[in-house]
Amino acid sequence: AGMLERxxxxxxxxxxxxxxxxxxxxxxxxxxxAGMVIGAFISARLSDTFVWRWVPEVWEQAFGAAxxxxxxxxxxxxxx
Length: 80
Hints:
By secondary structure, this protein is mainly alpha-helical. It has two domains: about 50 residues, no CATH class; about 30 residues, no CATH class. The protein is built from five helices and no strands. The longest helix is centred in the middle third of the chain and has 19 residues. The model has no long low-confidence stretch (mean pLDDT about 90).
């Protein structure tokens, strides 16, 4: 949140005491997530299994090809 606010507000983000104490910066957690995404993409490309799709095949067979219910369930799962 702090890095997003810094992108919008610039250095004024440091006006908040919390962000003065905990300066928003890219740390190991961000690099871990970025590495997982990049690694998964490279792996899928090398194995020739990379396909752009909104609805996975298993979901489509069970619930149909509609995108909206899939996104709603993904959002609900994220909330849980």
